[in-house]
Amino acid sequence: MDTLVIKGGKRLKGTVEIGGAKNAALPIMAAALLAPGEHRIGNVPHLRDISTMGRLLANLGAGFHLESNTALLDCSKVKNYAAPYELVSTMRASVLVLGPLLARLGKAKVSLPGGCAIGARPINLHLMGFEKMGASITLESGYIFVKAKKLRGAQINFDIPTVTGTENIMMAAALAEGKTVIENAAREPEVVDLADALKSMGARIIGAGESVIEIDGVSRLRPLRHEVIPDRIETGTFMAAAGITGGEVTIKRCNLQHLDSVINKLKDTGMKIRPLKTGVKVTGPKRPASVNAKTMPYPGFPTDMQAQLMAMMCVAEGTSVISESIFENRFMHVAELRRMGADIIIEGGMATVRGVRKLKGAPLMATDLRASASLIVAALAAEGESTIHRIYHLDRGYERIEEKLRKLGADVRRGKE
Ligand code: EPZ
C-alpha cells in the first residue's frame, strides 16, 4: 500500500489549482440515472470515489467514461436496480442511487451502508422521505429494497439537515407526481449544485440552498449538462496548509462564497486572506493564534474542515476548544496528532488543544479522508520526517495532492509500505 513521506519545516509558496467538488460530482453523476441519453458533467475530479461511482453506474447499465475532467454518461439502458455490497461498502455515497433508481425504475436495492470510521451514519431519514412519497421499504439480508409504482409528492421534514438525504429526496421528487416540500433541508453548496444540474435536465426546483426546498415533479427529464463547482474542502485544506507553515499561497479556481465560516475562522488565527480576480491569496502568520470552533451544518463551520483546523491549532499560541457536533466519532486524527507531540484532551465531542511550539515527525496512520488531510497539514510543519500509512483514504478525496504540495515547495513523496 502507498504511503506519503513528508519532511516538515518548509513554508509553502506558489500557486495551486482546485479541482471539482467530490461531494457535488457524486450526486450529480447519480442524477444522470433519471434520464435516458448522453449526459455531460464537467470539472469532475479524478478521485477514487468518482471511479467507484462510475463502476456502480456501469453495474446498473449506464455507460461511463471520464474524458480529461468531463464525465460522459449514457443512461439509455439502465435496467439493473441493485447496488452490490462490494461497491457500497467502499463508498457510502452509493446510497445516492436510491432516489434516482426509485424514480426511474420504480424500485431500488442497495446494500445498507455499514458504519464508517467517523460514525454509524444511518440513512433512516432518507427512507422516511421515500416512504412519505409512497414507497415501500423492506430490509433483506443487509439490503434495503425500496419500491413504488409511482412516487407522489409529499411534505417531508428532516430532524437533521442531512446532505445526501436532501439530495436523494430532491432527485426522487424530480419525477414524482405533484409537489414535494423538504423542510429543514441541508443548505450545502453541493446541494445547490445538484439542484442546478437537475434544473439543466428540466426539473422544477425552488429554494435549494435554503431550509425549505420545493420540487414540482415532471413526467420526464432530459440529459444533463453541468459544470461541477470547485471543492471548498480541498480549498480549505490548502488554506490550512499555508496557515500552519507560515506560507504564502495563491489558490485558483476556488469559490470563496462557499467558505465564509472557514475564512472567518482562519482570519482569527492571524491568516491574511486576500480575494483575487482568479481566486485568493492566503498568507500564514508566524505562529497561528488559537481559536475555538464548533462544527455545524452549512453555513456553519464544516465538519469536513474540523481535523485540518485542529492540526493547525496543535502549534497555535494558546488553547483552542474544537467541538464536533455532526458525527459521533470524528476525532480519529487525535491519537495520531498526539504521537507528533500534540497536547489534546477529548471530552465527549469536545477537544481541548493546547498549542505547542513544534510537532515532531513520526510514522502515522490515516483512518478516514479528512483525518488523513489533517496529518498532512501537521506533518508539513513538524520537525523531521513523517510517514503516513494507508493513504488510500486520502486518494478518495484529494487528486494528486503530493504533486500539488510539491509544486508549493513541500518536501513530500509517495512511498510504498
Ligand atoms: C455528507 O455526508 C458528506 N458526504 C460528508 O462528507 C459530510 O461530512 C457530511 O455530509 C456532513 O456535511 C457526501 O456528500 C458524499 P449527513 P452525509 O447525512 O450526507 C445523521 C467527506 O469527507 N443522519 O448530512 O452522509 C448522520 O449520522 C464526507 O467528503 C441520520 O441520523 O452526512 C450525521 O450525524 C465525510 N440519519 C448527520 O446526520 C440519516 O438518515 C449528518 O449526516 C442521515 C444522516
UniProtKB/TrEMBL annotation:
Residues annotated to bind UDP-N-acetyl-alpha-D-glucosamine: 92, 304, 326
One term under GO cellular component: cytoplasm
Binding site for phosphoenolpyruvate: 22-23
EC assignment: 2.5.1.7
Subcellular locations according to the entry: Cytoplasm
Alphabetical list of InterPro entries matching this protein: Enolpyruvate_Tfrase_dom (IPR001986), Enolpyruvate_Tfrase_sf (IPR036968), MurA_subfamily (IPR050068), RNA3'P_cycl/enolpyr_Trfase_a/b (IPR013792), UDP_GlcNAc_COvinyl_MurA (IPR005750)
Biological process according to GO: cell division; cell wall organization; peptidoglycan biosynthetic process; regulation of cell shape; UDP-N-acetylgalactosamine biosynthetic process
Sites of 2-(S-cysteinyl)pyruvic acid O-phosphothioketal modification: 116
Protein function: Cell wall formation. Adds enolpyruvyl to UDP-N-acetylglucosamine.
Name this polypeptide is given: UDP-N-acetylglucosamine 1-carboxyvinyltransferase
